[in-house]
Amino acid sequence: MTRLPVKPGERLPVKPGERLPAQPGERLARDRVVGFTFDGRSVQGYEGDTVASALYASGQRTFSRSFKYHRRRGLLCCAGQCPNCIVAVDGAPGARACTEPIREGMRVEHLNASPTLEFDAMRAVDVVGSSLTPPGFYYKTFIRPRKLWPVYEKVLRHAAGLGRVARRHTDRAWRTEYRRRHADVLVVGGGVSGLRAAASAAELGADVVLVDEGPQPGGAAAQDGRHLTAGPLEEQAIAAGVEILTGATALGYFDGIVPVWQGRTLHQVRAQQHVFATGTIEQPLVFSGNDMPGVMLSGCARRLAALYAVKPGHRAVVATTSDRGLEAAMSLHEIGVEVAAVADLRQQSGVAAETLRKLGIEVLPGHAVVEAQGRKAVQKATLAPVDARAPSSERAFDCDLVVISGGFVPCTSLLCQAGAKTRYDPERGHFVLGELPAHVHAAGEVAGAEDAESSGKLAGLEAAHLIGMGDLSSRQEADELRARMAELAERLASVLAPPAVCGERSGKCFVCHCEDVTAKDIRQSIAEGYDSIELCKRYTTITMGPCQGRMCELQAVRLMAQEIGRNLSDVGTTTARPPATPVPMGVLAGPPFEPAKRSAIHGRHRELRANVMWAGDWRRPYDYGDPEGEVMAVHRAAGLIDVSTLGKLLVRGPDAGEFLDRLYPNRLSNLKPGRIRYGVINTDAGRIVDDGTICRLDEETFYVTTTSSGAGAVEEWFSWWLTDWDLRVYMTDVTQGLAAVNLAGPRVREIMAEVTDLDCSNEAFAYLDGKRALVAGVGCLILRIGFVGELGYEIHCPAAHGEHLWDALLEAGAPFGIRPFGLEPQRVLRLQKMHILVGQDTDSESTPFAAAMPWIVKLDKEEDFIGRWALERYSSDTPATTLVGFTLADGQAPTEGAVVLDGAHAPIGQVTSSRFSPVLGRVIGMAWVPAGLASDGERVTIADQDRTLRAEVRTKPFYDPEGEVLRS
Amino acid sequence: MSFVLRCPNCGPREVTDFGFGGEVIRRPRFRPSFRELNSYNYFRVNVAGVQREWWFHRSGCRAWFIAERDTTTNEVLFTARPHEVGAEGNRDQ
Amino acid sequence: MSLGFLDVEAAVKSERFSPVARSPMERLARAAGGQFEIRDGWAVAVSYGSAEREAETVTRAAGWADTSHLGKLELQAEPELLEAIVASNASAPFELGCAHRAAGAWWCPLAPSRLLVVCDPGRLAPVRGLLEQAVGASDVPGSLVDVTTVLAALTIVGPAAREMFARFCAIDLRAGATPPGAVRPGSVARQPGVVLCEGEDRFTMLFGWAVAEYVWRQVDEAGRHLGAGPVGVDALRPLAAPVEVSSGA
Fold first, then answer.
1. So what's the architecture of A177-281+410-490 in CATH?
2. Could you say which of 3.30.1490.20, 2.30.30.60, 3.30.70.20, 3.10.20.440 is the CATH number of the domain covering A4-140?
3. Closest CA to A52 of A41, A64, A67, A40
């Protein structure tokens, strides 16, 4: 950041807007000027300014155009709550100008106005087109003639939404990182009560995180003259070890996790206790023209003056339901704003009004503001008695500022998400917190407490006590505070609830600024039958805009209660759902986590320029560029494939054999050490879930391999049953610990002779033998199996030696024409042998009988096994469909998934695998067909997109049907 | 869904550490009728409320355990090793 | 048939073959400037060019070292046998979540019937001998499996170590919750793993051999913004003798 340092007394080279003299709590560093642009115009502010304060100081009054009617909108809350100042910063839409600190060179642009913020063509919707856009207009006015819908749709799509997201990925890429933060106590809200809660919990030894949206903690104290309280409290909290996150927003409450968005970091805070000191939100009043620039909440006016030394206007009219508005009038007067009149909605104004009157300010009790008028911003406000029966004494005042205060509602959104309940309190005129879950605490104004410090301290102590901290004296203190808070609560003065609508004259009367919903729209919604708050919400979209109901929910409920003649408790509130604050999707998406498993030999595959593909969660070579050549190398010489992805499970213990007998439908306990058997795992419903080979290493040890994608599930399945069976069995998943390669082809014996002393003759090392030996100097387990149909050895070694083994085999095999082969050639080779791929050729309904493997089920076993009862039934039934092989006389391989048709072109089955076999010179495949067609020579029709293919059924492997090659 | 489960071996972990094994069901001890077999294979109580269920600490100790959880609030009432909860946790009783 | 095919030390050097055991992160370590030496049959990244800079990284922020060559043994047996083994070899109780350092190894109880022993590479054979003997002498069954190459490892050291973990691991690693000697099985970078706190600001993280490349990238991503970087194993100080025993999982 480049700054312009200014020496004291030196005249600034540029003028960062009109400012008041230094204010006691202001956030400005007046010796540092920061420049940025707004819609291309260069603007200066001081360090510490927000985009909104700098712009306001420079004279800007219109900050955005409204969602539907494109009306001018100015600052309303200046606290990041309302939608009025949403802008795009450096191309990213959705920033709130009133909370976004200025940075040198930042590019700020308005949203939702075209061609310019000053002249917006869509304003026509407000002037002439409002009758076309009642609630739910997109279901009503733009549906006929139907032919024109594509045009309407285009226009409406263009008109909808706020801002544009950059199309190109690089233009909208930014980095958000997740940061996990465990804590004992999370405090949301850094006002006086939040700081006090954090400090007192931390002082008892709790690990505390405090989150505050502002650039520094302080909350309401910062703007209302209590800034001297907040500072020392912050220091006390820091001294006690509290981690304070500023400029950070708590987005929601998800089963105990509170995601906190702070710039480029999304903190995932997992705390045991939660203190919400989220304060209150000042409510607007509903009257004609209440959305006009220049109409602002009292807090907004005070923040502009106190924090940023900006004079909010020259001549003000104030309308309020409480003393807060009177205090604001006093503050405005003090900074030189002429206060033309104060409308106090209460009939009795009390002491504060007297003080104002003494200063010559007119206070009108029992009056409200009924209309604001002006062209680009407010120029006139009309005040009238609240009580319609009162003699009319309507008076209009010229002004450039209308300060309103419709009361303060607790900011309970996060609390409700955390399980708190609210109830309507007629004494307070709004919904207040009811019951709280044990781990949730509320402190300060959100809890209705006027003594922020005591309330915060109590919440902090209670949170710490609940996690076992504190002592007798802290508990006594908590008891005293609790009693005091209860006593104070008794004495709270009642609060006036303003009328649902203060005045409805010629201009529109907005209940919801975000979505441009007027009082009239709500009435219409009720008239059309949407007369519950949840229905009205969905129909008018009220509470669904960026403010998430902060500014409109109570007004909507109040208006609905009035219109349908019920009380507010009965109308209720809408459900609080996360996110509590709008958040860019990119923040939630976070950094990419794309776990990939790679074989220990993977680096070699890359060097050999393999085409790499995803296979489950593994990265595997699809081929090395020549799938047919690789297939032929296996048939004619030798091939080497990395099969490290196979699941590998050690099952050990005195009862290991019995354990496997119970899990597999065939018998494994009688397998001799050093021998291998194929097995299929079934569910108790008799459906195939996985397959693989089992090698018995010694009396008590079995080496079970599974499919590549099934390793984890098989281990879980086995250990699940083991929890139930009283067997002495131990399992270890060694999948990732062992590299494995399959060396296959007619010349592999010669290659083995180069790398091992083991006798690999057919006599000494028969088909389905498993042996341990040194291969290329590395301890290996060698399994003679034949997934690809040629003489082959599957060699398993420690993963750390995988690359060494691979290199040694390729080097030793080079004179014999060895080639590495990938997954695709392997698929062709296995299909020639009709070896099924579980999950491709079978699905969740396939039984071993239907999958043409009845021989795998040994129903003559005495013991029970998983799937036995179901398989007993299936053994006597003829399956509806059966897995068979097929060949095509000519033509291309059909798509996997193509449909098998009967004579009448009705679908009767589907193709699961199909490939062109280079060694056989034709297309082969596997398909499910009706059992009646499952014999050699039957003809079936395959419909593949627009092709119709004639295929012939085969039930025996296409290549080496009797397995002579395998056993030789 | 981001609640915490206490693994009896490893202690409290995020739910994403675990695999869900479904509600605790009982495998028939003796040869079931076809109806019993189908009910065991395909029917679940699917309670809206407290249920006993299997969890697997997939990212940690890789052990199965039993949890009692309110399916409407995700509140976990307790977790225990299968043998610690006795008959109720056992599919074979 | 023994399980020697899982055993890196079963390799035999001959005129024709000289097998070297390699970490799954070797290529990434080399790309980052790692310099390798053969130690105990392993190619080990011993430094990244400047011992001074690595020491500085470890003192100021954090460094991560590929320690996949650490010996790892898994013993499953009846709880009584495991308790006796930990008592006699580490003079400590068998308490889940609490690892003990003895005989050049960490004795980590992971479940009532499962013990993981993580040892310096040179100590693998003697520790294995101890365990084999203990199981052999007992009349209850047990299963001892060399899982050295099932689990890859990174040792992360330095004041920023915990902040680094916070970027990819949800386990509570605050000093109070995970003191030296604590062992925490759980998800790291969304993969099954084990985090072992070896000392103040020093953690060894175990994870699947096949996901090592991915985990390295996650650690690198987390560490880069915190000023952390890869360091050679020579930048790791030898572990002091018995570390204070922690409590509770």
1. 3-Layer(bba) Sandwich (3.50)
2. 3.10.20.440
3. A64
In whole angstroms, what is the distance from residue C38 CA to residue A754 CA?
26
B60 touches chain A (CB under 8 A): no
* Summary mean pLDDT of chain A: 91
C174 touches chain B (CB under 8 A): no
Please state the CATH superfamily assignment of the domain spanning residues B4-89 in this structure: Folate-binding superfamily (3.30.2270.10)
User: Looking at the domain A510-587, which fold is it?
Assistant: Arc Repressor Mutant, subunit A (1.10.10)
Q: Residue A770 burial (CB < 10 Å; 0-12/13-18/19+)? A: buried
Tokens of A414: 């996060």
Q: Where are the alpha helices (DSSP H) in A175-226?
A: 192-203
Q: What is the ipTM score, two decimals?
A: 0.96
Q: Find the angle CA(B28)-CA(B31)-CA(B37) to the nearest 5 degrees.
A: 60
CATH of C71-146 among 3.90.226.10, 3.30.70.1520, 3.30.1330.10, 3.30.2280.10: 3.30.70.1520
- Which residues pair with residue A512 across a beta bridge? A517
Q: Where are the domains of chain B?
A: 4-89
Averaged pLDDT for residues A682-698: 96
Q: Which fold has domain A604-830?
A: Gyrase A; domain 2 (3.30.1360)
Choosing among 3.40.50.720, 3.40.50.970, 3.40.50.11030, 3.50.50.60, the CATH entry for A284-406 is 3.50.50.60
Mutual orientation of helices C161-168 and C212-224 as an angle, nearest 10°? Answer: 120
**pLDDT beyond 90 at A490:** no
Residue A171 is predicted with a pLDDT of: 66
Residues of B in contact with A256 (CB under 8 A): 2-4
pLDDT, one tens digit per residue, over B24-58 is 988 998 899 999 999 999 999 999 999 999 999 99
Chosen for mutation from B5, B9, B14 (greatest number of chain A CBs closer than 10 Å) is B14
Q: What is the pLDDT of residue A173?
A: 65
Query: Cβ contact (<8 Å) for C167 and A603?
Result: no
Q: How far is CA C29 from CA A306, A646, A893, C22, C36, in A?
A: 55, 27, 45, 11, 9
- What is the distance in angstroms between the Cα of C171 and the nearest Cα belonging to chain A? 9
> Could you tell me the residue ranges of all domains in chain A?
4-140, 177-281+410-490, 284-406, 510-587, 604-830, 880-967
Of C20, C172, C210, which has the smallest distance from its Cβ to A804's Cβ?
A: C20
Interface test with C, best of B9, B15, B62 (most C CBs within 10 A): B9
Tokens representing A797 are 């070694």
The model carries a pTM of 0.91
Fold of A880-967: Elongation Factor Tu (Ef-tu); domain 3 (2.40.30)
Q: Which residues have a Cβ under 8 Å from the Cβ of A144 and sit 6 or more positions away?
A: none
Residue A14's pLDDT band (cuts 50, 70, 90): low
| Unique residue bearing structure tokens 């003649």 | A565
Q: What's the distance, Cα to Cα, between the start and end of chain C in Å?
A: 38
Predicted pLDDT of residue C189: 94
Q: What is the pLDDT of residues A329-342, one digit of tens each?
A: 999 999 999 999 99
């009220």: which residue's tokens? A542
* Average pLDDT value for residue range A31-58: 94
- Range of lowest pLDDT (A136-145, A585-594, A653-662, C44-53): A136-145
Q: Answer for the pair A134, A524: CB distance below 8 angstroms, yes or no.
A: yes
CB atoms < 10 A from the CB of B49, how many?
Answer: 10
pLDDT given at position A174? 66
CATH code for C9-69+149-231? 3.30.1360.120
Q: Does A226 score more than 70 pLDDT?
A: no
Lowest mean pLDDT among A187-201, A301-315, C72-86, C233-247: C233-247
